[in-house]
Amino acid sequence: MATVTTPERVSPETGGTSGRQRARRPVGRWLGDHLILVVGILVLLYMFVPIGYIFALSFNQPSGRSATAELESFTWSNWTSICEPEGLCESLRLSLAVGAVSTVIATILGTLMAFALVRHSFRGRSSSNLLIFLPMATPEVVMGSSLLAMFVSVGADSALGFTSLVIAHVLFCLSFVVVTVKARLSGMDYRLEQAAMDLYATEWQTFRLVTLPLAMPGIVAAAMLSFSLSFDDFIVSNFTAGQSVTFPLFVYGSKLKDFPPQLFVVGTLMFLVSFLIVIVGTLWRRRRAES
Questions:
Q1: Which terminal residue of the chain, N or C, has fewer Cβ atoms less than 10 Å from its own Cβ?
Q2: Full-prediction pTM beyond 0.70?
Q3: For 53-104, how does the pLDDT look when each residue is reduced to its tens digit (9 = 90+)?
Q4: What are the structural domains of the chain?
Q5: What does each C-alpha distance from 76 to 3, 56, 61, 259 come to in angstroms?
Q6: How far apart are CA 115 and CA 21, in angstroms?
Q7: Mean pLDDT, the chain, as a whole number?
């Protein structure tokens, strides 16, 4: 007689292959749907861990001379005595002044150059587009040493300071402004300007009411980028500052001697201000889009 074999029953406790597959499918599907989100969160955590450490060190009361060793005790005194380290606030004011002046000059010149390169055809236009990228591609140590050699050759080495810093910062910020504004102008719809001219608007009215508002996001972005590059520059400033001390130079000098915790307070304030500007700009653009 033929024997009949009955299929082996799988208890719920032990489970089976099909049960494990069914359990894995929702997990795999969830990971597939949220992979980009998970990777983005991990990247953000990787980026913000040093910033969080700086924020924590701004409330640290070190027992020794250096504030970078370890977290010891909590204190508010670092936030109430920002200017206590000698020369910190002076270097901060110098960096803010140099950044503001060089940003204004570089933004005006760069915007005019971007309009010329996008809106007009002239001899040497292709070469000009190529030359604009050279300061961006040149190593900063080469640019800084070249500027120092130029100042020495014209006899201005004894007057290195605020003026030489502004000239140097405008030089390397100009390319970034041109590229940023040029990208904005290339994406503009010129038919809006033609429509304004068809409605009997003058050239100045068209520029003021149509062209400039459309180009303003690119100009503002270029100005913010220029100020950031100017404020935290160290290499070019080290060659062209002379006896002046900017904030990055002060940080470097403090690292060689002792590192006061007030530097972490300034770094935290810089991050909070930048974050606030980004949030306000995002909300403003969203409100304009909704209206």
A1: N
A2: yes
A3: 888 888 887 766 555 556 667 788 888 888 888 888 999 999 999 999 999 9
A4: 51-85+260-291 (no CATH), 92-247 (1.10.3720.10)
A5: 85, 11, 9, 17
A6: 61
A7: 82
